[in-house]
Design goal:
two-stranded parallel sheet, 10 helices
């Protein structure tokens, strides 16, 4: 396919280009795929400047993306077979080719191999959708899609790794009069991917949280201090009931920094207090204000002063923290992030 000076021959040329890509892939000919890519870009730029040739520009963009995908598949296959090497590392006896030999930059190689992670069916779907919208499918858009997929896969692997570090709850080993919990609530919506809770720590479904055998940790009289955000209040009440507790009251943490929200921009979190049996109320001198004021710190980290508050309320009680992120002297801890000490 040659650079064109008139519009009429464009469509047949683009059709031939697609056929040529199939041949290039079959022959593992990266140079041919790169040439088709470059020529498709010439056609795309040329037709995008001609009134009434928008459909041809979209078609040329499709061929360019298909050429990138084909090139990525070829380069990945060459790399796996040991046929692709850095020019300065190539031994004279090694029958290999470098990117430089083929006129391919490292950036293009990286982008092409990312796009090649998509299946052919996915590329077909993106191309068809772009044609229907009469908007060119772009290499940048496909690269971004694959990068997002890679981030999600990496995040999922991290989540599974952290979940795997959780030992079973130490039911039967010791009974506790105080349980302090900060469940990793899972949210249905996030303002943006970068703000998703899963970016910070692994979450659990409501069923997973309710299904924990927390009741097996409780002494005859036990008090539960559990954190809940206002959107999760109804679910938190369900967890309290599932764990065998009865809701009593709550405190409010004023984070002193405004956050996000769909109705109100959240600046507070709730510390729910529930009991099982008769643990007894704290003495009058240990009863604090129901408003805790401390500036918000690292994502999901709770005020350290709450440890001291609970310790003064129940000074001699055996205590355990669930979903712990730090290790506190005088407390047992269960969780997958309890590395730091406070």
């Amino acid at each position: 396919m040659n650079a064109l000076t008139t519009v009429d021959p464009v469509l047949p040329a683009l059709t031939r280009a697609r056929e040529a890509l199939a041949v290039a892939y079959e022959n593992r000919d990266a140079k041919a795929a790169k040439e088709i890519l470059d020529q498709a870009e010439v056609v795309r730029v040329y037709t995008s400047r001609i009134d009434g040739a928008e459909d041809l520009a979209v078609k040329a963009a499709e061929i360019k993306v298909r050429a990138v995908w084909t090139l990525g598949r070829i380069l990945a296959a060459m790399k796996e077979a040991g046929e692709l090497t850095q020019a300065h590392n190539r031994a004279k006896s090694t029958p290999s080719t470098s990117l430089k030999d083929m006129g391919i930059t490292r950036d293009l190689s990286s982008q092409a191999q990312r796009v090649a992670q998509l299946t052919e069916a996915e590329v077909d779907e993106r191309a068809s959708s772009a044609t229907e919208r009469r908007e060119p499918v772009t290499m940048g858009g496909l690269v971004s899609e694959v990068k997002q997929r890679e981030r999600k896969a990496k995040k999922k692997a991290k989540t599974e790794d952290l979940k795997g570090r959780n030992e079973p709850l130490p039911v039967g080993e010791r009974k506790y009069q105080v349980i302090y919990a900060d469940p990793p609530w899972r949210y249905d919506h996030a303002v943006s991917e970068s703000r998703e809770i899963e970016n910070q720590y692994p979450t659990m479904t409501l069923e997973e949280i309710e299904g924990l055998p927390v009741g097996g940790l409780c002494a005859d009289g036990c008090v539960l201090f559990m954190w809940a955000t206002s959107p999760k209040l109804a679910e938190a009440m369900g967890v309290i009931s599932a764990w065998g507790f009865t809701y009593r009251t709550c405190a409010v943490w004023d984070k002193m920094v405004i956050g996000m929200g769909y109705y109100f921009r959240q600046q507070h979190e709730l510390l729910l207090v529930s009991t099982k049996g008769k643990p007894g109320a704290p003495c009058v001198s240990a009863r604090r204000s129901s408003v805790i004021q401390e500036k918000r710190g690292k994502h999901s980290a709770k005020p350290l002063m709450v440890y001291g508050m609970i310790e003064s309320m129940y000074p001699d009680a055996p205590r355990i923290e669930l979903f712990s992120r730090v290790q506190r002297r005088g407390w047992d801890a269960w969780g997958n992030q309890a590395d730091a000490h406070v």
